[in-house]
Specification:
The chain has 473 residues and is α/β, with parallel strands linked by helices. The chain has two domains: 2-249 and 454-471, Rossmann fold (3-Layer(aba) Sandwich), CATH 3.40.50.2000; 262-447, Rossmann fold, CATH 3.40.50.2000. 39% of the residues lie in helices and 20% in strands. The model has no long low-confidence stretch (mean pLDDT 97). Bound molecules: adenosine-5'-diphosphate and alpha-D-glucopyranose (GLC). It catalyses: [(1->4)-alpha-D-glucosyl](n) + ADP-alpha-D-glucose = [(1->4)-alpha-D-glucosyl](n+1) + ADP + H(+).
Length: 473
């Protein structure tokens, strides 16, 4: 058994703001069949502690970044979960990263440095006689772990993998906090964790981890370009030999359509239209969006391109939350246009009903490291219309003339990410939707797409194995 501690700020079913939680929650189960013993370490936010069925303290700290803390062990199905209980850092109202007013917690650098530092201590000393061979660090929140592990003198025995789920979040902190974060001053330079005169937790991970990965092969190469690297492309180019793109999968125990045949989908569409108050007799496709409303997701472009769908009898149902300007713009659109339904908020059950009831799912992202909703769409026969970028490029087979002629298309892709190109893609979507035979074929192809964790779990397992070997004396 390869022993891996997965370190992350979110994990389904305890705490989720996006796809990171889905991935962290699914990996241990997907990897168990490959002989990997993966345990997850997450922060004990108030809402996490409240959900723990049972708990037992397995480690204690008198002073962890300003207060007492414990590691709680909690069973999660067949898995073992470690929760960092540190009330002074995590027992608060609000979300994992922001206060109830939507501002970042001012002590975010310390909060996640604490998580990373406990991960490193577990790496160095083990916990309950369990000694991980690998720390798998997800995003900037776990970025300092490889550096702390070095400081503890354990980096020669324990290997580290830093996975980028989204390079837009870099864990920046003022250099005045170097002492408070317990970082070695000797690392504060361009080839260390310094970034634009500040400290970057993500850069620390990218510099000090043994191996790097991201969540799709296309994003792995995009990240090394100026357009996508967000200032870290140079660091990544230097480490390209250590970098790999491994596509996410989806947890099919959580995301399986409530129907076996395409014909059965119609009743879910009817139910969804009814629930959302959308007219039942419009001829065009019902398109859904389930998304964080941020710049990344390109929904401002969708707003501009929407007439191309609505004027041709198509409908839009959007579930999302985030940018207040976008929330308002979509709500206004829904008030004015009978073909548009908008629900602002976070609703896991509605997300499932929308996936089941929609004809197509729209993902017009400016960048998308992997993207999960297009994969849920494939599984549900809800055809993805996506921007040609990142994981969206790697998971969808475009209904291009070649894709259609070969009979393997599973969705549509457009490029560049502009209102014009999206409008054209939506017109193509409508034409395809009207061609019942082709549409049905595409649905069948989509539902048979290999979106489970099977392939990618094997890739992670092989990567871990090679990392363990590399540390053997
Ligand atoms: P990202 O992680 O960038 O947000 P992904 O596509 O990888 O994008 O994952 C998003 C996840 O969050 C999916 O599981 C999706 O269903 C879910 N999601 C996003 N917004 C909402 C929402 N408003 N309500 C329910 N689920 C949502
Ligand atoms: C990030 C990315 C998304 C990816 C998810 C899980 O939030 O934005 O594309 O699917 O992480 O890896």
């Amino acid at each position: 058994m390869t022993r891996v501690l997965s370190v992350a700020s979110e994990c389904v079913p305890l705490i989720k703001t996006g796809g990171l939680a889905d991935v962290v929650g699914a990996l241990p189960g997907a990897l168990a069949v490959h002989g990997v013993d993966m345990r997850v370490l997450v922060p004990g936010y108030r809402q996490v502690i409240a959900k723990l069925p049972t708990q037992e303290a397995v480690a204690e700290f008198d002073d962890l970044f300003g207060g007492a803390a414990r590691v709680l062990k909690a069973p999660l199905g067949a898995q073992v979960l470690y929760v960092l209980e540190a009330p002074h850092l995590f027992d608060r109202d609000g979300g994992p990263y922001m206060d109830p007013q939507g501002n970042d917690w001012r002590d975010n650098p310390e909060r996640f440095a604490a998580l990373s530092s406990v991960a490193a201590m577990i790496g160095a000393d083990g916990i309950e006689d369990w000694h991980p061979q690998i720390l798998h660090c997800h995003d900037w929140q776990a970025g300092f772990a490889p550096l702390y592990l070095r400081e503890l003198g354990a980096a020669g025995r324990v290997s580290t993998l830093m996975t980028i789920h989204n390079i837009a979040f870099q864990g920046m902190a003022s250099a005045s906090r170097i002492g408070a974060l317990g970082l070695p001053r000797t690392g504060f330079h361009q080839r260390g964790y310094e970034f634009w005169d500040s400290v970057s937790a993500l850069k620390a991970g990218l510099v000090y981890a043994d191996k790097l990965s991201t969540v799709s092969p296309t994003y792995a190469s995009e990240l090394m370009t100026k357009d996508f690297g967000m200032g870290l492309d140079g660091v990544l180019r230097e480490r390209q030999e250590d970098m790999v793109g491994i596509l996410n999968g989806i947890d099919e125990t959580l995301w399986t359509p409530p129907y076996k045949t395409i014909a059965e989908k119609a009743k879910h569409k009817a139910a969804l239209r009814k629930e959302l108050g959308l007219p039942a007799d419009w001829p065009g496709p019902l398109c859904v969006v389930i998304s964080r409303l941020t710049e990344q997701k390109g929904l401002d472009i969708l707003m501009q391109a929407l007439p191309a769908l609505l004027d041709r009898g198509g409908q839009l149902a959007l579930l999302g939350a985030g940018n207040p300007g976008l929330e308002e713009a979509f709500q206004r659109k829904a008030q004015k246009h009978p073909g548009v339904a908008v629900r602002i908020g976070y609703d896991e059950d509605l997300a499932h009903r929308m996936m089941a009831g929609g004809d197509a799912i729209l993902v017009p992202s400016r960048f998308e490291p992997c993207g999960l909703t297009q994969m849920y769409g494939l599984r549900y026969g809800t055809l993805p219309l996506v921007a040609l970028t990142g994981g969206l490029a790697d998971t969808v087979i475009n209904a291009s003339p070649a894709g259609l002629a070969a009979g393997c298309a599973t969705g549509l892709q457009f490029h560049p990410v502009s209102a014009q190109a999206l409008a054209q893609a939506m017109m193509r979507l409508i034409t395809l939707y009207q061609d019942k035979e082709t549409w049905t074929r595409m649905m069948t192809n989509a539902m048979a797409s290999p979106v489970s964790w099977t392939h990618s779990a094997a890739k992670y397992a092989a990567l871990y194995e090679s990392m363990v070997k590399a540390k053997q004396p």
